[in-house]
Design brief:
By secondary structure, this protein is an alpha+beta fold. 31% of the residues lie in helices and 7% in strands. The chain has helices at 7-11, 25-29, 49-99, 150-154, 251-260, 264-278; strands at 133-135, 189-190, 194-195, 215-218, 232-237, 242-246.
């Protein structure tokens, strides 16, 4: 049966019929014909320089709004890790005392109240702040002695060096500075946590320290220009409890650094300040010192 290829076939809708019109009336009637930049294949306008600048400005504003929040989140995370370090130190002190007839780790820089603190390894006058030294550097010795909290490492109660360093510390004594020292027999090692070494009543026996919630280890450094945290500190008490003491203004930290850098009495007063702060008392002004320490600061 023959198939028509004329206009009749096209009018009947034959799919194989291709109408031929030399005047291109069918092509011309197509909705995209003659509309090279119309709605079929339209070349959309690109971004102008102003659009780009406005977009960059908006992105910059959003970043400026988000960065402080991200920074606070990171610092909060570091504070939690620091609190974990202080807690492990507390457990180490408790285990040490359990094995050493209730005595807490001894430090050569912790003396009975009112006594002169010994001089440092280099002959300079010692102070209460030297208790951040985990290992001393003394000329003429073939092996440097461990001191204070460093005894927890040497006796393997806390065999991980990172426990003694605050993740937020940005001063002169980061953990990386002493990476090669731990396996050597000599050399100074400085941690990031201040150690009291005795109770306000002068006792070096853990169960005899009074008051029972006295400050024992503080997440502080002696340099007022390089606090571990800019809004407070983690504190270990003699009952092995942990708390975070808020210090948004930095007043407490500055007072601690100023007093601890002086005589033995100044060190006692600095710890006395932390005792009052942890009990929610005022840390400004004079008056009698809480926890049995000398009054006034």
């Amino acid at each position: 049966m023959s198939r028509s290829h004329g206009p009749e076939g096209a009018s009947r809708g034959d799919p194989d019929s291709v109408p031929i019109h030399r005047d291109n009336t069918i092509v011309a009637s197509h909705p995209c014909a003659g509309e090279v930049r119309g709605r079929c294949g339209r070349a959309r306008p690109g971004f102008t320089l102003i659009d780009v600048l406005v977009s960059l400005a908006v992105v910059g504003v959003l970043i400026s709004l988000l960065l402080p929040s991200l920074s606070r989140v990171r610092e909060t995370t570091r504070q939690v890790l620091c609190s974990s370090n202080v807690r492990q130190i507390g457990l180490g002190v408790a285990m040490y005392a359990d094995d050493w007839q209730d005595r807490i780790p001894m430090s050569v820089y912790v003396t009975p109240i009112g006594h002169q603190i010994p001089r440092g390894a280099n002959g300079a006058a010692g102070s209460a702040v030297n208790t951040i030294n985990l290992r001393l550097d003394i000329d003429g010795l073939w092996r440097s002695p461990w001191d204070g909290l460093g005894r927890l490492y040497s006796a393997e109660y806390l065999p991980t060096p990172g426990v003694f360093f605050c993740p937020s510390h940005s001063g002169e004594h980061p953990q990386s500075r002493y990476e090669g020292q731990w396996t050597r027999p000599i050399g100074l090692i400085v941690g990031n946590y201040q150690y009291r070494g005795q109770g306000p009543n002068g006792s070096t026996y853990l169960s005899r320290i009074e008051p029972r919630r006295s400050s024992l280890v503080a997440d502080m450094m002696f340099d007022a220009d390089s606090p571990n945290h800019d809004n407070g500190l983690n504190l270990l008490r003699s009952d092995i409890s942990i708390s975070f003491i808020a210090d948004d203004s930095g007043q407490l930290y500055r007072r601690f650094a100023m007093m601890a850098g002086g005589s033995g009495t100044g060190g006692v007063r600095a710890w006395d300040t932390l005792d009052r702060a942890s009990d929610g008392q005022s840390t400004s002004g004079g008056g009698s010192g809480g926890g049995g320490g000398p009054g006034g600061f």
